[in-house]
Amino acid sequence: MEKIQVKNLVKIFGDNPKRGLKLLEKGHTKEEILAETGLTVGVNDVSFDINANEIFVIMGLSGSGKSTLLRCLNRLIEPTSGEVKLGDSNITSLDKKELRDVRKHKFGMVFQNFALFPQRTILENTEFGLEVHDDITEENRKEKSLDALEKVGLKGWEDKYPDELSGGMQQRVGLARALAVDPDILLMDEPFSALDPLIKREMQDQLLDLYEELNKTIVFITHDLDEALKLGDRIAIMKDGEVVQVGTAEEILTDAKNDYVREFVQNVNRSQILTAEDIMIKPEDLLYENDGIKTAKYKMKRNGLSSMFTVKGKRKYRGIIRLENLIDAKKEKKDIKDLIENTKTARPDETLDELFGDMADLDVPLPVVDKDNNLLGIIVKGTVLSNLAGEDD
Ligand SMILES: Nc1ncnc2c1ncn2[C@@H]1O[C@H](COP(=O)(O)OP(=O)(O)OP(=O)(O)O)[C@@H](O)[C@H]1O
Ligand SMILES: [Mg+2]
């Protein structure tokens, strides 16, 4: 899987766009250039990287250049200047044949209004993307298409026609068509914008499932901030053809570069963005399964704690031990292992919203563990509350 690198990319629409380049270099704005020359600056000197296997979201107002930028990545729109690289290969300098090959094998595209052919069955619509692949047999094409339809949850629908499917299902066919080719990179231009909110959320979940399952880089355009935050590993925000900020959801929320970005993120609910990982702290001290009763008591006293978390080995999470249970333990000849209580745990990617429910009836902190049950940190109730309270800042 290869990284995409975009360097000083410019797209100017109109006759003799090189005139526009000169003006851009002199610092003229998109507006000025339009007024002076009638040329439209679609993308203005954009540089960034898209990591292999990430979901890279592009956001911005209508006309800010999102679709133009996306289409420059595989040269469906020919850039006026600048460079797009895929791994070591320079997309911008490929000849026609090389470009066709790269497009065919590396890129898949999904659009908002995915024009399905009404006269073709769902299977035939899905096969469409593979028809240009003359190295694939008919049988193979069918197999790949059926497989893709199954991936998007449309098994059993292959012989229906588009008008027999709901909007969400039609969009799934569009996605299946792109997936059938098994490209490394999916370019998605507002694929879910026309869907109603519930279906849209379903599609987002499904895309995330597919993303986990398949090894792909996804470039995803949206107007919808919630969608961007939900899907994006990183988000690029565009204005007047320029990329004004690239960052993780968290970076964009907490460290907006300018007012334009701030406006975008104004109304986001922090409780849905911040995760356990963001607010967990290091425990003061830990008990180890092999600690004796005396050591355990001593550690609690020293730290002024009435309970402590216990780990096995270096940090395999085992549970909690309460001071009151230690007090009588010696008489009963109990081992520290007998005193460990199971508690609720949280995953690092749980949101504040989800955590709040978990913590409501807890009288001890909430341990955060990874999928191998290693203790990563703990969350104290107060932190959750104060972060929720800070919602408006
Ligand atoms: N084929 C074209 N010819 C001339 N100008 C164009 C062309 N395509 C796009 N533009 C201009 O380039 C700029 C960027 O358009 P683009 O379609 O990339 O915006 P967008 O961010 O995708 O908008 P939307 O959210 O409405 O889809 C706009 O000013 C638009 O008018
Ligand atoms: Mg667009």
Question: Could you explain how this protein is built, in words?
Answer:
The chain is of the alpha/beta class and 393 residues long. The protein folds into two domains: 4-270, Rossmann fold (3-Layer(aba) Sandwich), CATH 3.40.50.300; 277-392, CBS-domain (Roll), CATH 3.10.580. The protein has helices spanning 18-25, 30-37, 66-73, 96-106, 122-127, 138-151, 167-180, 197-213, 225-231, 249-254, 259-265, 276-279, 293-303, 323-327, 352-359, 381-389, and strands spanning 4-13, 40-50, 55-60, 81-86, 89-90, 107-111, 185-189, 217-221, 234-239, 242-247, 287-288, 307-312, 316-322, 366-369, 375-379. Strand 12 (307-312) and strand 13 (316-322) form a beta hairpin. The longest helix has 17 residues, at 197-213. The protein is elongated. The model has no long low-confidence stretch (mean pLDDT 90). Bound molecules: adenosine-5'-triphosphate and magnesium ion. Magnesium ion binds at residues 66-67, 189.
Question: How would you describe this structure in keywords?
Answer:
393 residues, alpha/beta, Rossmann fold, CBS-domain, 2 domains, 6-stranded mixed beta sheet, 4-stranded antiparallel beta sheet, 16 helices, 22% strand, binds adenosine-5'-triphosphate, binds magnesium ion
Widest sheet, order of strands? 6-7-8-3-9-10
Given helix and strand content, the structural type is alpha/beta
Average pLDDT metric? 90
Helical run tally:
16
Tally of domains: 2
* C-alpha-based Rg, rounded: 27 Å
Poorly predicted residue ranges: none
For the record, the CATH architecture of the largest domain stands as 3-Layer(aba) Sandwich
CATH superfamily of the largest domain: P-loop containing nucleotide triphosphate hydrolases
Instruction: Indicate the CATH class of the largest domain.
Output: Alpha Beta
Strand content: 15-25%
**Which distinct ligands sit in these coordinates?**
adenosine-5'-triphosphate, magnesium ion
| Shape designation | elongated
In the CATH scheme, what's the topology name of the largest domain?
Rossmann fold
How much helical structure, as a percent, in the residues? 25-40%
Main sheet summary: 6 strands, mixed
Number of strands: 15
